[in-house]
Amino acid sequence: MPIRKDKKSGIWHLDIRTPGGQRIRRSTETSDRKAAQEYHDRLKADLWRQDKLGETPDRMFEEAAVRFLHECEGQRDYSTKLRHVEYWRAKFAGRPVRSLTADDIIDALPTHHTKGKEPRPLTGSTRNRYVSTIKRMLNLCAEWEWIGRVPKLPHYHEPDVRVRWEPPEVVAALIRALRLDWMRDAAVVAVATGMREGELLGLSPSQVDLAQHNAWVTHEGAKSKRARPVPLNEDAVGILERRLRTAKRFVFTRAEGTARRITQVDARDFERACNTVGIQNFHWHDLRHTWASWHVQRGTPLMVLKELGGWETIEMVQKYAHLAPSHLAEHAGTVKFWSISGEQKEKTPLEEAA
Questions:
Q1: Three-state secondary structure call for residue 155
Q2: Average pLDDT over residues 68-82
Q3: Is the pTM of this model over 0.70?
Q4: Are both 226 and 324 inside the same structural domain?
Q5: Which of 100, 194, 209, 295 could be stapled to 300 by a disulfide with Cβ–Cβ 3.0 to 4.6 Å?
Q6: pLDDT of amino acid 55
Q7: How do residues 143-173 score in pLDDT, each as one tens digit?
């Protein structure tokens, strides 16, 4: 029988043979007999055209998704790609990859965050991440000769890069306003080293060498997946030396001598301290921006800052360049004309009266 109905689920299944004799049995994923029969007839016709006319078979979105994820295994953003693919699969399951158009993808793009009490509109940068994932998958499909061309997809406007920093006296007041001891210690080391939140909270005693005034981030704990040294100044050494006396698995824990890792900073304590000091729109990651801004203001070259902070490209550090005008000031006098022309400045009425 070409199609049969599953009594328990009510879904129709097909059972056919290809012109070459291969047996194909699968669900039509519908309880409508007419739709199931149409699916059966179309599949049988496609198999005949592939065998007799040499046409390329359609590849389903699920096939492309699985192969794409295999290609991405081991990449540092694999979890993000997996989340995006799960979203797109919910939209395009059962669709041949070659049937996807730019309009299909744009119409299916998410528009709001659904977590939390109230939905929030997605930013252009978040939409671009979703577009980037499916575009990469379709580019690979083109390389595998599963599709003839990749639809042209839009790039949404992204806001300017945010650089938020505060001067030393304000940061010092903020740290003093924190109520939790471990938060104060973590904040001092964060602004003294520029370490990211995950790198700092995952720091183990074996990653600290006080004698050499150095710590290091392992490649597993680094956002860029590149290990790097972290030079320690006196501020950081003083905090780490004290905490290492009782540290077990991690340097920063909520209570001395405990081994349980802290997964994220205490946002309530940090927000409370910001309100106490009167700082607005300031987040924990802005301590890293502050550290980088202070370095640039004091003359640290951008290439050196790039290595200190573990950024992958120099473009990621260029956002701090405007804070170092001193490296241009010495060239301001290269072109001048008025002071060497012999002209005198125009006298004021008081100067003429004298």
A1: coil
A2: 89
A3: no
A4: yes
A5: 295
A6: 61
A7: 998 888 999 999 998 776 778 999 999 999 9
| Strands 12-17, 23-27: pairing kind | antiparallel
Length of the chain: 354
Nearest to 255 by CA among 240, 243, 238: 243
- Cα–Cα distance, 138 to 142 (Å, whole number): 6
- Please give the residue range of the domain that contains residue 104: 61-143
Q: Is the pLDDT of residue 75 over 60?
A: yes
Distance CA 211, CA 232 (A): 10
d(CA 148, CA 145): 7
- Non-local CB neighbours of 108 within 8 Å, separated by 6+ positions: 88, 91, 92
Residues 71, 43 within the same domain: no
In the chain, what is the straight-line distance between the N-terminal and C-terminal CA atoms, in Å?
A: 117
What is the number of domains present in the chain? Answer: 3
- The H or E element containing residue 49 is helix 33-53
* Residue 225: closest CA among 353, 77, 93: 77
Is a pLDDT exceeding 70 seen at residue 342? no
Q: What six digits make up the tokens of 193?
A: 């080293």
Residue 255 domain-assigned (yes or no): yes
Structure tokens at 36: 């199931």
Contacts of 188 (CB under 8 A, 6+ apart): 175, 235, 236, 239
**Amino acid of residue 318:** Q
Task: Check the CA dihedral 197-244-270-174 and report its sign.
Answer: negative
- 3-state SS class at 174: helix
Do residues 198 and 295 both lie within one domain? Answer: yes
- The single-letter code of the amino acid at 210 is L
For residue 59, which amino acid is it?
A: R
Residue 6 CA: distances (Å) to CA of 12, 27, 244: 6, 9, 65
What pLDDT does residue 226 have? 79
